[in-house]
From TrEMBL:
It is an enzyme of class 3 (hydrolase). GO terms for molecular function: cysteine-type deubiquitinase activity. Its EC number is 3.4.19.12. It catalyses: Thiol-dependent hydrolysis of ester, thioester, amide, peptide and isopeptide bonds formed by the C-terminal Gly of ubiquitin (a 76-residue protein attached to proteins as an intracellular targeting signal). Belongs to the peptidase C19 family. Residues 149-345 form the Ubiquitin carboxyl-terminal hydrolase C-terminal domain. This is ubiquitinyl hydrolase 1. Keywords: Hydrolase, Protease, Thiol protease, Ubl conjugation pathway. The keyword tRNA processing does not apply. It holds the Pfam family USP7_C2. It comes from the Eukaryota. GO terms for biological process: proteolysis. Transmembrane segments: none annotated.
Length: 352
């Protein structure tokens, strides 16, 4: 009887793993970090998820159906770690701009009836897996506790707060320098074009002005938004820049290209400053391209002589390929590459 039960369990486990392999799109990978893992970890940061040059943290990993509810998952975690479910709170890990990771947002019981895939899309849309911190509350001891609640009086109603989205947009001048900060408050159902209208009205721009809105992570452009994109797709606390699209980009030649540009100091990982987009003109000697770059940056001749320009492979650790004046940049087969400006950051603190 015992052997039959063991065989049934092994068969069920085999069938489950086979289903995960055959239908991976149905499953969500979840890594759990416990306080004990924090305490044992001796490396940089709180835990090491993927930096393979250092020992990776040994973490409990789960593969669950994306359609599984948070309530069911929480119950499973309770049974797995032998912790009462009412003492469990799970937090979403996020990667911060200084490249450290921290538990950032708790998954509240409001999500108990939601699927784990909905939670992933709501909280970490950019990633295909969930990394969670398991917080364990102390058991209730029956003592009476006096709790004082302090309320902040807002200028808007709670209903308006819940139905609208608030964020800041940093407006750039023609020389890629922050000129203004624009507070945006729009219904969550609004589209990006409504942000453009607010900017045009506030800055008294021509109504025919063409504006670019893009977000920045780790000092590089992550996404440029289309006028019809819903603002609900814009992540909270992301850095947003807006600018009037330069004329050379509007009147782009058939063989011209637009490339992303970012600043770094010696190593591409040491990025800084405000990233932007720049036109690579077909057949233009790099000595002329540098003059346009200097104007775009608004730098004087003395400061610009300290800037070295390189082609950077975004998705590899290849060394920067520095460019000589006699090169024609459009001859490079640029696809996913970026243009890197190698120089030290100015003393002024820049948002990114």
């Amino acid at each position: 009887m015992l052997i039959e039960r063991r065989l049934d369990e092994e068969k069920a486990l085999y069938e489950q793993k086979k289903k995960e392999t055959d239908e991976p799109y149905l499953y969500l990978s979840i890594k759990i970090v416990t306080p004990a893992i924090f305490e044992r970890y001796q490396g940089f940061d709180l835990v090491n998820f993927k930096e393979r040059q250092y020992p990776l943290s040994e973490l409990p990993q789960f593969k669950i159906l994306k359609s599984e509810t948070y309530e069911a998952f929480k119950t499973m975690i309770s049974q797995k770690f032998e912790i009462p479910v009412e003492q469990i709170r799970l937090w979403i890990f996020v990667k911060r701009q200084n490249r450290t990771i921290r538990p950032d947002t708790p998954i509240t019981d409001d999500f108990l009836g939601k699927t784990m895939e909905i939670i992933r899309k709501k909280m970490v849309r950019r990633y295909n897996e969930l990394k969670l911190f398991l917080e364990v509350a102390k058991p209730i001891n029956g003592k009476v506790v006096l709790i004082l609640l302090y309320y902040e009086m807002l200028d808007i109603s709670i209903v308006e707060l819940e139905t609208k989205k608030f964020f800041k947009v940093y407006w750039l001048g023609t020389t890629v320098k922050e000129e203004d900060v624009i507070d945006i408050c729009l219904p969550k159902t609004a589209i990006v074009n409504q942000i453009f209208q607010i900017i045009i009205n506030k800055l008294a721009l021509k109504h025919t002005s063409r504006i670019r809105l893009y977000d920045v992570l780790r000092y590089k452009i992550q996404k440029e938004y289309d006028i019809n994109d819903p603002i609900d797709e814009i992540e909270e606390n992301i850095t947003l820049y807006a600018e009037e699209i330069p004329q050379d980009e509007i009147k782009l030649g058939t063989k011209d290209k637009v490339i992303r540009v970012f600043h770094f100091a010696k190593e591409p990982l040491c990025a800084h400053g405000i990233p932007f987009k720049f036109v690579i003109k077909a057949g233009e000697p790099f000595s002329m391209t540098k003059l346009r770059l200097k104007l775009r940056l608004g730098m004087n001749e003395k400061d610009f002589t300290k800037v070295k320009v390189a082609v950077i492979q975004e998705l590899s650790y290849a060394k920067p390929q520095y460019i000589d004046d006699n090169v024609i940049l459009s001859d490079y087969e640029l696809t996913d590459e970026l243009l890197g400006l190698d120089h030290f950051a100015s003393q002024k603190l820049e948002i990114a």
